[in-house]
Amino acid sequence: MADIDPYAYENLCSLPTREKVTLFNKNDKLFHVIFAEQFDRELLETLCRLATKTRAISKSMDGSNFLRSLLRHKSAMLYFTQPSTRTFLSFVRACQHLGIVYAEVRDPRISSALKGESDIDGIRTFSSYFDLIIMRHHESGLAERIAFMMNDIHRSIPVISGGAGADQHPTQALLDIYTLIRSFEKREGGIDGLHVAMVGDVKRGRTVRSLSKLLTNFNDIKITFVSPDEFKIKDDLRHVLAARGVEFSETDDVADVLESADAIYMTRIQDEYDESPGESRSVDYSKCHLTLEKVQYMKDSAIIMHPLPRRNELDPRIDWDKRAMYWRQERNGMWMRAAIMAYLFNVDAKILEYYQDNYL
Ligand code: NCD
């Protein structure tokens, strides 16, 4: 890709995401992690197996020493200019599990951004010192643009998006798929044929958008989007689902899915993206709340997920219900993120071999 002008990126913006996927590969292998569209079923299942083996190995002293020896020569820059607790910390811990050293910039006011430096130049600077950039930014196209630029510079390093505005959150979707696969591992057909309900601000919830796209890789998935009218999914997602043959419907009341859903994926109102002050406050969200009373109607085998943080859409008393999966979901995120980094840095085969030699 040496002859692509990074500032010609605008010309590519209008391409459908699926057509951009190969731009983010290197030697036909995933290099940057920017979109859910980069993952097919085979890669998803590979990463889930890798995450499970990595976490099993980490449980012993010898195993965790082995993991920490794998990427001691690598470094990561965490550039998170939007608020984050789980994504940031799970990446930090995932780096530590693999021996990756890391640094962080979370407040652009203490970086050269204040001197008028552009994000592009600032992030390009990271590539002089680090081997990986993990970034979260309010501008939805920035990670994509940076990744595109990385392809064309002398010291090209991978970019992982930890959340791109209201558009996508690919690593959250990976850990959500990992959670679904683990939760339904004993079910005949695994996650094929599941009915997944996505509840809340499904218009601006980037986790919902990315997870819906990943679910299109599985068979006979049915999705119901539950939201107030003001926060219904956007047409682009409707088109993706229709083009991939996924059955989906929309409603405004979570009561409609309680009895049939296998997984209820709760989300909060994304009011940081309000276009006018108080926009979200005027919306009645109560039919999108999951209460102790409502969970009684759910299947015994169903699970409740939430990317967190939560507000009042998910009653904390539900945490003691065996179907509540969100705390395990966030833990799964750390192992999935370790798996992604192991995969990008090509130490996945070493992990599988260690597992084979010591655990089978
Ligand atoms: C989500 C996000 O940042 O999009 N959080 C997370 O990464 N676990 C969900 C949210 O903020 O509502």
Can you put this structure into words, describing what you see?
Helix content is 38%, strand content 14%. The chain has helices at residues 10-13, 17-20, 41-57, 61-70, 86-98, 119-129, 142-150, 170-183, 206-215, 235-243, 292-295, 326-344, 348-359; strands spanning 25-26, 29-30, 75-80, 101-105, 132-137, 159-164, 195-199, 222-226, 247-251, 263-266, 303-305. The longest helix has 19 residues, at 326-344. The chain is globular, with a radius of gyration of 20 Å. The termini are far apart. N-carbamoyl-L-aspartate binds next to helix 5 and helix 9. N-carbamoyl-L-aspartate (NCD) is lined by residues 86-87, 163, 169, 172, 206-207, 267-268, 307-309.
Which tags fit this structure?
single chain; 360 residues; alpha/beta; 4-stranded parallel β-sheet; 13 helices; globular; binds N-carbamoyl-L-aspartate
Q: Quick summary of this structure?
A:
The chain has helices spanning 10-13, 17-20, 41-57, 61-70, 86-98, 119-129, 142-150, 170-183, 206-215, 235-243, 292-295, 326-344, 348-359, and strands at 25-26, 29-30, 75-80, 101-105, 132-137, 159-164, 195-199, 222-226, 247-251, 263-266, 303-305.
Task: Report the sheet-strand fraction.
Answer: 5-15%
Largest sheet, spatial ordering of strands? 9-8-7-10-11
Radius of gyration: 20 Å
Tell how many strands the DSSP assignment holds.
11
Mean pLDDT over all positions:
94
Helix percent reads: 25-40%
Q: Which class best fits the helix and strand makeup?
A: alpha/beta
Q: What ligands does this structure carry?
A: N-carbamoyl-L-aspartate
Distance from first to last alpha carbon: 42 Å
Low-pLDDT runs of 5+ residues are none
Order of helices and strands: HHEEHHEHEHEHEHEHEHEEHEHH
Number of helices: 13
- Biggest pleated sheet: 5 strands, parallel
The general outline is globular
